[in-house]
Amino acid sequence: MKAFVLEERNKAVIKDMPIPELDSDYGAILKPVAVSVCSSDVNTVYGSGTKKREDLILGHESVAEVFEVGKKVKDFKRGDLVAVPAMTPNWRDIAIQEKNFLHAGRPFSSNALGRTIDGVFAEYFKLDDADMNLARIDEGIDVEDALMCVDMVTTGFSGAESADIRFGDSVVVIGIGAVGLMAIQAAALKGAARIIAIGSRAASINLAKKYGACEILDYKQGEAVLKEYILSSTGGLGVDAVIICGGTDESFAFAVDIVKYGIGRVVNLKHYPGEEPIPIPKFSAGRGMSGKSIYMELGAGGRVRIERLLNLVKYNRISPKDLITHRFYGLDNIDKALELMRVKPKDLIKTALYIKV
After folding, report:
1. Nearest to 272, CA basis, from 250, 299, 255, 292
2. How far are the Cα atoms of 71, 135, 251 from residue 149, in angstroms, in the given order?
3. Nearest to 331 by CA among 136, 176, 177, 125
């Protein structure tokens, strides 16, 4: 089969690979219908993180057709159309009973597809624990909506959930890429009153407003200007919650600066490359005693999570396919989609690639 693999650091190529074989009674072999390239795929190829094995098949965002299932799989059969969560928790690890869904057994155990195990950018791929991880796509749900649910929606929504947003809250979302846009959408659904989005990506501004942003601030004004504006417009108190979905290393300190003492929540969804410490300002952190809460999160995963998000699509609460600005056809064009995500032109939010032309 054809697959898009990490041949070595900084080099991903399409090459022939063996078709995966089913080695679990609970697993499934799937044929991707549509996939999307993520910024974290770019980081896997070009980033400075943990070295990945050679010939690792990339990718973790897909809608797929079930090709084969293990003999103990109860709820899925060949031909079913499914959404495949980017996060696939290790449901058979005891840490699940402690609700440690994302890191059961080892750090980032759920964050495996295209990172520690072969991913979805291939003509076939394997997934363990099909009944617990695959999400059925009901008739009438658009493939592209489902594709955005598997990572962008669940990650952005996880930010709003961890921020414990309440009716009437003021919220700042830093970054208006796909995850930031979904964090805005989730904050609005959870009842935030004032949502301030910080970003300048032209393709995202109208969507940010559509999803619930009241104000769009350009980060190019500088954090000092933005901080002064946000604090002055809240009577010096700061906002109830900040969700970090983009920016720089300094964005973390900025978030701590602008959130309320005592009850403020900062949720980070951003990846920070490199080995340097993430700075936290001593003064606005109350020299360690501010009462401000900090959460560092991944998107939630698993079957139930994605099926609940698909219900939001089904009943017209969200329309995440609007995130898709660029479409490709045929696996042979996956390198073009990766390069697009690497250079990030101003008109880009998300890509969709259909495996078969």
Report:
1. 250
2. 28, 10, 26
3. 125
Give the domains, in start order, of the chain with CATH numbers: 2-136+319-354 (3.90.180.10), 156-296 (3.40.50.720)
**Whole-number pLDDT of residue 357:** 62
Report pLDDT for 57. Answer: 97
- pLDDT for residue 54 is more than 90: no
- Residue at 306: amino acid letter: I
Beta bridge partners of residue 127, listed in sequence order: 28
β-pair partners for 216: 197
Instruction: Read off φ and ψ for residue 318, nearest 5 degrees.
Output: -140, 155
What is the Cα–Cα distance from 310 to 316, expressed in whole angstroms? 10
Asked if residue 20 lies in contact with residue 124, where contact means CB atoms within 8 angstroms, the answer is yes
Which one-letter DSSP state was computed for residue 152? Answer: I
Contacts 24+ apart (CB under 8 A), 103-107: none
Give the residue carrying structure tokens 């056809």.
329
pLDDT tens profile 89-99: 999 999 999 99
Among residues 129, 166, 153, the alpha carbon closest in space to that of 260 is found at 166
Give the strands of the sheet with 2-8, arranged side by side: 11-16, 2-8, 56-57
Model's pTM, two decimal places? 0.96
Using only C-alpha atoms, what is the Rg of the chain?
Answer: 20
Q: How far is Cα 156 from Cα 136, in angstroms, rounded to an integer? A: 21
Torsion of CA 215, 218, 222, 224, to 10 degrees: 0
Report whether 104 contacts 96 (CB < 8 A).
Answer: yes
Contacts of 98 by beta carbon, 8 Å cutoff, 6+ apart: none
DSSP for 71-119, written as a single string: TT--S--TT-EEEE-S----TTSGGGGGT--SSSSSTTTT--BTTTB--
